[in-house]
Amino acid sequence: MNKVSLPPVLFFLFVIFLSTSISAQDYVASNQMMPTEISTAYRLQKRLSAVYDGYVIEVGTSEYPMKRANPLFKKFGKIYYHKLREGGYSYVIKAEFSDLKSVRRFNNTVIKPKVNGARIYEYNMGKRKLRE
């Protein structure tokens, strides 16, 4: 069986290429400016699914859509909105808990210190019900 081998010069160039590209990546990564706060692009609100099932915590309401610069979006990450049938918008955070007791504890310890009027809703196939 014939073995294929690189001539020493090609092997040497290949090793230099690998080490150069790795150190160039490290250089670029280490010299990039690190953001001091999260960009507002990551804090855009998204529409809550029309068939969402689960708990949410309402952190704000508005007659009209809120602008990106609203301070609410600086306090929390993923905020969803629900256009209400009676008019206006509800801004919520999905509470990824399976029981109401855990959602209440999270709301009281984490959310309410930042948003005093935070309320818990349960969604069942997109229909909401106040759960406080």
Structural features, described:
The chain is built from three helices and six strands. The protein is α+β, with helices and mostly antiparallel strands. It has a domain of 91 residues. The longest helix has 24 residues.
Shape: elongated
Assembly level = single chain
Count of runs of 4 or more consecutive helical residues: 3
Major sheet:
6 strands, mixed
Unreliable stretches covering 5 or more consecutive residues: 20-42
Number of strands: 6
Q: How far apart lie the N and C ends?
A: 77 Å
Secondary-structure content class: alpha+beta
SSE topology sketch:
Elements: H1 8-31, E1 46-47, E2 54-62, H2 72-75, E3 80-83, E4 89-95, H3 100-111, E5 119-124, E6 127-130
Parallel strand pairs: 1-3
Antiparallel strand pairs: 2-4, 2-5, 3-4, 5-6
From the structure above, extract its key features.
132 residues; 3 helices; alpha+beta; elongated; six-stranded mixed sheet; single chain
